[in-house]
Design brief:
There is one protein chain. This protein is mainly beta and 363 residues long. 6% of the residues lie in helices and 44% in strands. It is built from 2 helices and 33 strands. The protein has helices spanning 2-20, 358-361; strands at 24-28, 31-35, 41-47, 49-50, 58-61, 67-70, 87-93, 98-106, 117-125, 130-136, 150-151, 159-161, 167-169, 176-179, 186-191, 196-200, 205-210, 212-213, 222-226, 229-233, 239-242, 265-266, 269-271, 274-279, 284-290, 293-298, 301-305, 312-315, 321-327, 329-330, 338-342, 345-349, 355-357. The strands form 9 sheets. A 4-stranded antiparallel β-sheet has the order 7-8-9-10, with no helix packed on it. β24 (274-279) and β25 (284-290) form a beta hairpin.
């Protein structure tokens, strides 16, 4: 009896460990697949693009025009039958289990031989398999991690949805041109005169006419230029850290400051080619360092590049080099691995600096 009980216990524990394992993305010959914690390939490298797994799901590009969602077993998740005759072009992740589906479908009110087609937006929740038609293509979204809100400007106007696809419409919706992700009860918003404001979850304005900023809060802070002050503000609009930013402009309009906090650390470029790191209290962790590029901190390590076209390495928040600059290409760490390229070969990097080449993984 004891032996049977022990065997049953062992099987239950083994099943739990297997179910709890993460799937990690790897790259081989220009395509992506997934392996588990035991370094065994679960999904062959067949996808042109693939995201890391979060909450048991990952997004993959199936071909030049199609995307799909993989479940925790690495299997493609079937969309509801409703979408069988819809051409789902794109899928965007909005929160843990919420996605935006872009379709290209026939106009149901056009009965001609060549009916009009148009782009349409759906919101889809994989947890309960519910979907919601948001409207045609006038849709603006941003992903978030904390409050699970995202903005939608479509047939419904503007507002925020929760994770169950319930709408909290904006008051004076004609006043808002664009809404950014709501985190910790505060968000960036753009009015119909292109002025930027900081608002709360009830659409009340906290700060008016912001000069420039980041697009959302991280660790309760957002980079901002406001009323001749430059630094990081909290969700009440109070400056917690005063510093300077060299804004890498990717658009003609704000927000252009992309030096967000991550894991309690921010690494802003304070002037061109000069980087510095802060904690959330404003303490300087790394003094000014001349570098070409720094990423956000991920799993305790910051990816950096000393010079343009130089190789990549990793350092800690104080600027101490943990892994030398030996990589032609490198991405941030996710679940204990970073995708790197060495002398044209795809590989996986561990935080201790050890390397597993993808060709060894797929043998």
């Amino acid at each position: 009896m004891k032996k049977k009980c022990f065997t049953l216990f062992f099987l239950l524990i083994s099943a739990f460990i297997f179910a709890a394992q993460n799937l990690h993305v790897f790259k081989h010959n220009g395509l992506y697949g997934y392996f588990n914690d035991e370094m065994k390939v679960v999904v062959d490298a067949i996808y042109p693009e693939a995201s890391p797994f979060y909450d048991g799901e990952a997004l993959v590009k199936l071909d030049e025009e199609k995307y799909g969602i993989l479940n925790e077993n690495g299997e493609r998740q079937k969309l509801p039958d409703y979408f069988d005759d819809k051409n789902v072009d794109l899928i965007y992740r909005l929160s843990s289990h919420c996605y935006r589906l872009d379709t290209f479908e026939k106009d149901p009110n056009d009965f001609s031989n060549y009916p009009r087609r148009y782009n349409c937006i759906y919101l889809y929740n994989t947890k309960n398999n519910q979907y919601y038609r948001a409207g045609r293509i006038n849709f603006s979204y941003m992903s978030l991690d904390l409050d699970y809100y995202f903005s939608a400007g479509c047939d419904l106007g503007y507002g925020y949805f929760d994770d169950d696809l319930n709408l909290n419409p904006a008051n004076q919706e004609d006043f808002w041109l664009k809404l950014y992700p709501m985190r910790d009860g505060a968000a960036l918003a753009v009015d119909n005169k292109h002025n930027h404001h900081l608002i709360d979850s009830n659409y009340n304005i906290i700060l008016e006419e912001i000069g420039d900023s980041g697009s959302e809060f991280h660790d309760g802070l957002m980079p901002m230029v406001y009323n001749k002050k430059i630094g990081y503000v909290n969700t009440k609009g109070e400056f917690v850290i005063e510093t300077s930013f060299y804004a890498e402009v990717y658009d003609f309009f704000p927000p252009t400051i992309n030096y967000d906090f991550s894991e309690g650390v921010a690494v802003p470029q304070v002037k061109k080619g000069i980087w510095r790191s802060y904690d959330t209290k404003g303490k300087i962790l790394m003094q000014d360092r001349e570098l070409f590029f720094c990423s956000k901190q991920q799993e305790g390590l910051i990816r950096f590049q000393k010079e343009k076209k130089g190789k990549f390495g990793f350092m800690d928040k104080y600027g101490y080099v943990e892994i030398p600059c030996n990589f032609d290409k490198a991405e941030d760490f996710v679940y204990g691995y970073a995708l790197v390229e060495i002398d044209g070969k795809d590989a996986l990097l561990k935080p201790d600096g050890s390397i597993v080449y993808s060709e060894e993984l797929v043998r």
